[in-house]
What we know:
The structure holds 2 protein chains of 2 kinds.
Chain A (H helix, E strand, L loop, with lengths): L12 E7 L3 H12 L4 E4 L29 H6 L25 E3 L27 H10 L9 H15 L1 E2 L13 E2 L6 H13 L6 E2 L33 H11 L3 E4 L2 E9 L4 E9 L5 E11 L3 H10 L27 E7 L5 E4 L6 E3 L18 E9 L11 H6 L6 E9 L8 E9 L5 E6 L4 H20 L3 E7 L30 E2 L2 E6 L14 H20 L4
Parallel strand pairs in A: 1-2, 1-10, 2-7, 3-17, 4-5, 10-20
Antiparallel strand pairs in A: 6-13, 8-9, 9-10, 11-15, 11-18, 13-14, 14-15, 16-17, 19-20
Helix pairs in contact in A: 1-6, 1-10, 4-10
Chain B lengths: L1 H16 L5 H7 L15 H14 L13 H12 L2 H22 L8 H14 L6 E2 L2 E2 L8 H14 L2 H7 L10 E5 H4 L7
Antiparallel strand pairs in B: 1-2
Amino acid sequence: MANFNIDAKKEVTYDAIVIGSGISGGWAAKELCEKGLNTLVLERGKIVEHVVDYPTMNLDPWDTELRGGLTPEQKAKHYKAIRSGWMGTDTEHFYADDAANPYTEKKPFLWLRGHQMGGKSLLWGKQTYRWCELDFEANAKDGYGVDWPIRYKDIEPWYTYVEKFVGISGQALGLPQLPDSHFLPPMELNCVEKHVKERIEKSFPGRNMTIGRCAHLTVPHNGRGQCQYRNRCNRGCPYGAYFSSNAVTLPPANATGNLTIRPFSIVQSIMYDDKKGKAIGVRIIDAVTNETIEYMSKIIFVNASALSTTQILLNSTSKRFENGLGNDSGELGHNLMDHTYRVGAIGSVEGFEDKYYKGRRPNGIYIPRYWNIDEKSKNDKFLRGFGFQGGGYRGGNAANIEEFGPDYKDSILKPGPWEFFITGFAECLPYHDNKISLNTDVLDKWGQPTLTIDAEFKENEKAANKQIQEDAVEMLEKAGLKNVQGFDEEHPPGFGVHEMGTARMGRDPKTSVLNEFNQVHAAKNVFVTDGACMTSSSCVNPSLTYMALTARAANYAVSELKKQNL
Amino acid sequence: MDRRNALKKTGLFAGAAIVTPSLFSLLQACKDEPRLSWKPLFFTDIEAQTIATLVDMILPKTDTPGALEMKVDIFIDTVVAKGYDENGQQDMRKNIAKFNEDCEVNYGAIFTELNEADRIKVLKNEEVASGKFNLSIWGKTIGEQKPVGFYRSLKAMAIGAYLTSEEIGKNVLNYDPVPGKYEPCKPVADIGNKWSLG
């Protein structure tokens, strides 16, 4: 791939500035560049060029001194993110430095950040689901939050548009609560998963189990290679087999010749001109030189990740917007949501000891929502719904076996027992008092205010989690699993890494920050299309919806720009 | 392997040399002991010998290599030296000392000086007494993890070190860095040992 142009020019007024290069920023850059806009992408961290900057992609455990383990220095650098349980030496370099970028947890909250080109698109789970009509109607129906200003029909063509480019593998089911994407061939269930699926679907009419729908290619697609089943995705995929900005959206943006990406650019604020009544550019701090620099543009896409985007807006004060850009409603920073995480059940499966699989499938199973989708499925204990992810595999923990010596040693070389688990993801309602705010007492390495996060799951989420665990245990027991064990890790928000809200879309400028095209109501040349824009949280993974909203907003922005409306 | 023989001799020699088998006197006597054939980064010789004897009993040589051949003890020393913070290191030190103290109280000598029958008794007892790990999903254990004893933790480290050693990972387990495709349901007999990469 050609080198990226990193030479940003102060004297140039760009057509567009995109803040952030993760899942939504990459899409904004691609769409705007392809539509002919001279586009500057401001990236907080380093350049990560596809393949070239994946230093660990082919390492085996014995290739690193601690075989994947972190040093005390690395643990200190990531003292917050390490709680996720995901990080090792193979991926440590793609997680932000918590010490240099502090945040304050008024209540426990895990905020995972990826400060590099590609952002968290290098690290995400790749589960890819369309939202459904129910999701966009939910707030209006039960009165929590404000009504979405769009419906499924508004976003459907854009789901189609991004899916065809990204490549989503999955099985079509025709379910209204989980609309099908344009699918590449699905990955396969293993024999235990097929067995459990049959039993669950037989015992619980209306419940389905399917292979995860994911942004992994099962066949070559748009010049990218198919998944090789290494399951080393988070190190960066040399085949470009999963969706990341680095492999998928930024290369075509670069190919237009319209892209400049400036690394090490800490966005301080968006500059708003009171006389012109619009934003005029972005002020950054160079992370290396500490120099403050201003870049001008006609339109600005804010895609810094949900919380960082709102942090920038809150820090962008002017005479017109004393409490943050676009904060006429007072809702900026509020209505933070995430999905509940790690509550479900696990058990062992007997009768398949002579079966095994080849390849490390970077995907599991999915059980779509089945509560509160119609009158018949109404559940009085909680509003909205949840879905399950999970999977079957040969696991076990050899250290727990009460044996040692020659026979024991030989036994641990053989495949362990089959285990199967499901874990629920419940929708979180939008609550005004789940919020973030600027903290001027704790500054980051560059002297900028940081965030205080004050959010919690409340009664509805707890009730949903209770149902998740009960259902999970019941389904696994009915499926004939042994040693079925329910669990609820009672994780606070953030562990799901689906943070949404804090600059929500809505119909009314008095109660929302963004309109139906993701424009800041009172600063129409500023667009927010990452997780911050979300009005509700659904129970399915949100990334595909960010992609679709971004492509839709970019298309609108360019047409408005051409009409000279911005 | 020479190192294993050296360790056995060390054990015998140490047993003969110690008159008062208290840990304190042992530590005092340390400088007079024969040295290990490798230089630990963190462990004292006695600690290293304790770990080596343990991992050798848990994962001995059969027709496949044992833990000592795979330098599991040396790797554990590296992990404690470079992967643990100071608290973790001190805990490890205390845990080994406590383990040896218990051996002294119950069997009259530190672990490496016990005869094989007593060492087996120690391990059998630890297997029952040392606690278990909860199951884990997606990188973390689930449920309330009760404290796990030194023995179980060490056993887990030994297994991890053994299975991620290059010889075992590449030549004993099934090494397939680029599977190319997913075959969801194959007879175990067609594959043999488990896959080496998680």
